[in-house]
Write a structure and sequence with these properties.
The protein has 312 residues and is an all-alpha fold. Helix content is 52%, strand content 0%.
């Protein structure tokens, strides 16, 4: 009797022909859409207000900002820190390493690093040359290796190897600024914080939350619009939105769920069909299954194990 062919152990569901999406799955994938006439009418109303010097009141800005946050929460219910970590030490090191590189690349590098150096005590005594070799793919590997070894040594010397849970202590560590500190506080300790990275600052200005350029002033201005309990999730949502829809050079205005609330509507492609082709990451055309898995609650580690690529 001939033996049946076995599927290789490495094969995953996405290697096979995907089953058609059900009506329920398609409904789950739907995000808020703004008809072009509605978005254009809102833009004309804002233009008339600007022309007649009718500036948006602080109360109106706060209400608009909070509505944007609610809609982005519905659009990205799975928004989390995109760096993989199991404890504050791992998140702190990964965040320092993420400077001027992608989270995807950091997540590909840190498993080996954390396996060999599972805590600050181990990393503090590591040979610098060994760390340089491990973080080489991340760029600026010499300075990054030196930063995380010195950081680990200071954790051991001043905090018994533990990551402190206070802003004033974190910013005294090598390579740790306010942005990194708030990433750690918000995601590892559950303490509210606004993380002003490139995407957050850009979208805060584009959405009309503030016109400030300095990260600290952006942080202060945006904090006034939202309750502290919303700060950490807002940070994730703006970053997700900036990476997937509201791109720096070619924002997909026609596919934006907050197009009618955005003072910058029209900066990018407003045609809905053309704008949909500009979407990235799990929202990109042809990646519906990946998007669906996110919406179903799959973690980033689970998705990589299933064979999905999480890059743009």
């Amino acid at each position: 009797m001939p033996q049946s062919k076995k599927t290789p152990a490495s094969a995953t569901a996405i290697d096979q022909e995907p089953a058609p999406l059900t009506d329920t799955e398609r409904q789950l994938l739907e995000i808020r859409t703004v008809p072009t006439p509605v978005a254009e009418a809102a833009a004309r109303k804002r233009a008339r207000a600007t022309a007649t010097n009718q500036a948006e009141s602080p109360l109106a800005r706060t209400r608009r900002a909070r509505k944007i946050n609610r809609i982005l929460g519905q659009t990205y219910p799975y928004a989390v820190a995109e760096l993989d970590f199991d404890n504050p030490y791992q998140l702190l090191i990964a965040t320092v390493l993420s400077a001027q590189t992608t989270d995807v690349r950091v997540n590909a590098t840190t498993p080996e690093l954390f396996a060999r150096y599972p805590d600050a005590q181990a990393l503090a005594t590591a040979r610098l040359e060994d760390i340089e070799d491990m973080v080489r793919p991340l760029g600026f590997y010499r300075s990054k290796a030196k930063s995380i070894v010195n950081l680990a040594a200071q954790l051991v010397a001043e905090h018994k190897g533990e990551v402190p849970g206070k802003l004033e202590d974190l910013v005294k560590l090598p390579g740790v600024g306010r942005k990194t500190a708030f990433v750690v506080l918000g995601n590892a300790f559950g303490k509210p914080g606004i993380t002003v990275d490139t995407h957050f600052g850009r979208l805060s200005r584009r959405l009309g939350f503030t016109d400030q350029e300095d990260p600290t002033k952006v942080e202060q201005a945006v904090a006034e619009l939202f309750e502290p309990k919303d700060w950490t999730q807002l940070s994730h949502r703006l970053v997700y939105h900036g990476r997937r829809i509201c791109h720096s050079q070619k924002p997909a205005c026609g596919a934006c769920p907050v197009a009618d609330l955005c003072p910058a509507y029209g900066t990018g492609e407003t045609d809905q069909t053309k704008a949909a082709k500009l979407l990235k990451y799990e929202m990109a055309p042809g990646r519906e299954r990946l998007h669906l898995r996110f919406l179903q609650g799959a973690t980033r580690r689970q998705l990589r194990a299933e064979g999905y690529s999480l890059s743009a």
